[in-house]
Design brief:
Layout (H helix, E strand, L loop, with lengths): L2 H25 L23 H18 L8 H28 L2 E2 L1 H8 L4 H9 L6 E2 L5 E4 L3 E2 L2 E2 L3 H10 L4 H8 L11 H7 L2 H23 L1
Helix pairs in contact: 1-2, 1-3, 6-9
Length: 225
């Protein structure tokens, strides 16, 4: 085999291992991350039982599996690192998606939202969004989605449009509003803004509106600077 053929074969092999590593990572649900990369010089040693330790253990198990199958044979140390890096990136992507799903719950498509609300046209949905009576988020690839958490009994929960008007009226991005609603509020650190909305406690909701106004004013000031 010529040197060029050897190089092409090695490159093809590395691509296959990267794909396999990503698939292995995507299929393993037992992982987490804390913002630092496995193997990064600045990373502190993972704590026992921490998400970082689990992802390190899963990566090590994946490498052992590839090695046992002979699929790392002939790869240089740098090439092996590239395979592990590909798996780590896939794990991080999966984790971020899981964190979003766990935090905000299901997102409904436009058609499902129209059916749920009994709205006949897209223009009617657009009108509700513009009036801040319905929360819509748009994904990076331009898909419109609607957080399911805002709905109950065939309509938007009554307290939410008041919050939407304050928060979205400040110019905040809808995703920012989603995270605000699903973030802990109060001293206990466990009650979310949505929990206050769901409680139906008008006094607590009034306090939440005051907090929304303060936060929205802070966002507006930050944009103005």
């Amino acid at each position: 085999m010529s040197p060029t053929a050897h190089q092409n074969a090695a490159a093809s092999r590395i691509r296959r291992q990267r794909v396999r590593a990503r698939r292995l990572a995507a299929g393993d649900v037992r992982f987490g991350a804390e913002g630092k990369g496995i193997g990064d010089p600045a990373s502190s040693p993972p704590r026992p039982g921490s998400p970082t330790r689990r992802i390190a253990e899963d990566l090590a198990a994946m490498v052992r599996d590839l090695d046992r199958r002979g699929e790392l044979e002939g790869l240089t140390l740098q090439q092996r690192r590239e395979v592990v890096d590909a798996a780590r990136d896939a794990m991080r992507t999966q984790l971020r998606q899981r964190e979003v799903n766990d935090r905000i719950g299901p997102l409904l498509t436009l058609d499902r939202t129209r059916a749920y609300l009994g709205v006949g046209s897209r223009q009617a949905v657009d009108g509700r969004v513009k009036r801040h009576t319905l929360l819509r988020v748009v994904t990076a690839d331009g898909v419109s989605l609607f957080p399911e958490f805002q709905f109950a009994r065939g309509r938007v929960k009554p307290a939410l449009p008041r919050l939407y008007d304050v928060l979205l009226g400040s110019g905040a991005d809808p995703w920012t509003v989603v995270y605000w609603l699903t973030a802990p509020v109060g001293v206990d650190g466990g009650t979310r803004a949505l929990d206050v909305v769901d409680s139906g406690d008008e006094d607590a909701i009034a306090d939440l509106l005051d907090q929304a106004r303060r936060d929205a004013a802070g966002w507006s000031d930050a944009v103005a600077r």
